Amino acid sequence: MRRPLLLACAALLLACTGGRAAAADEKLVADLVKLLNDRKNKPEVRSTAIHALGALGWSGISALDDLLRILDDPEERRLARETLGPWDTMGPWYYAIEAIGQMGPGAQRAVPSLVKAKGVIPPFDPAIDDALRNLLHLPDVTGLLGGLRSADPGVRLFAARTLRTVSGDYAAVYPALIQAAKTDPDSDVRGVAAESAALVAKGEAARLARLLKDSDENVRLLAAKALGKMGILAADAVPALNEVIAKDTDPDVKAVAQSAKKKITGKD
Q1: How far is CA 183 from the centre of its chain?
Q2: Which of 169, 241, 248, 256 has the largest CB neighbor count within 10 A?
Q3: What CATH number does the domain containing 187 carry?
Q4: 8-state DSSP, 216
Q5: What's the whole-model pTM score?
Q6: What pLDDT, in 10s, does the model give residues 248-259?
Q7: Owning domain of residue 63
Q8: Are 131 and 100 in contact (CB under 8 A)?
Q9: HSE-up of 17 (CA within 13 Å, CB side)?
Q10: How many domains does the chain have?
Q11: Whether the Cβ atoms of residue 254 and residue 218 lie closer than 8 Å to each other
Q12: Residue 191 and residue 110 in one domain
C-alpha cells in the first residue's frame, strides 16, 4: 500500500467529519473524486475517499455521477464480491451505495441504479435499502403507498418491494399492491407488486393465526372474523381455525371460526 496516499486520504476524511463539511468546497470534492477514480489506487484508498464524500453529504453532490459509474460498473461489483470484510476492505462499490444515500433527496436520480443493484450482493442489500429511504424520504406506510403512485418507475419499484415488510396495515397495503400489480405500466413494478401482495397476505394470515391463541376471547373472535374476510388468501390459517373450532372454550369464538373456515375453504 502507498501509505502516504492513504494517510492523505484519511486526512481528507477527518476534515470532512471534523465540522468542516458545511464549508467544503469543490476543490475538496475534486480531490476525493480524483482518488476514487484512479484505478491504480488500492481499494482501501478509494474506499476512504468515497467514505469521505459520504461524510460531506449534500456538499458532495457534484460527485454523484462518479459514484453512479462505480455503482453501475460490473467490474466494481466483481471486486466487491471478492473483498467482503471490515469497513476499509469492503470495496468502493459498497461505499458508493452509502455515500449516495448520505447525499439525501437531491440525489434521487440515483434511485434506478440502486434498485438494480438490489440482490447483486445480498449482504449489501440493507445498505441499499437505507440509501433508498434517505433519498426518497419514504419511512412509513403512508409514504410508501404514495411511492406506488410516483411518476418514477424506480420509486414505484422500491415502494412495491418495501411494502412487503410492513405488518399490521394489510387493509391499506394489500389492495394498493394488487392495484399496482394489475395496472402499473412497468412490467418490473407489476411483478414485484404481485410478489409483495402475496407475501403481505401470507404474513397477515400468520399474524391473525397467532392471535387465535390469545388469552382474550375478544381478540380471538376478531382474529377469526378477519381471517374470514381474507377468504382464500388465509388458507394457511385453516389448521389454526380447526384447533379453535375443536378446543376453544368460548362458543362465539368457535362459531366465528367455523364461519371463517367456510369462507376460506368453501366447506364446513
Answers
A1: 22
A2: 241
A3: 1.25.10
A4: S
A5: 0.52
A6: 999 999 999 999
A7: 1-135
A8: yes
A9: 15
A10: 3
A11: no
A12: no
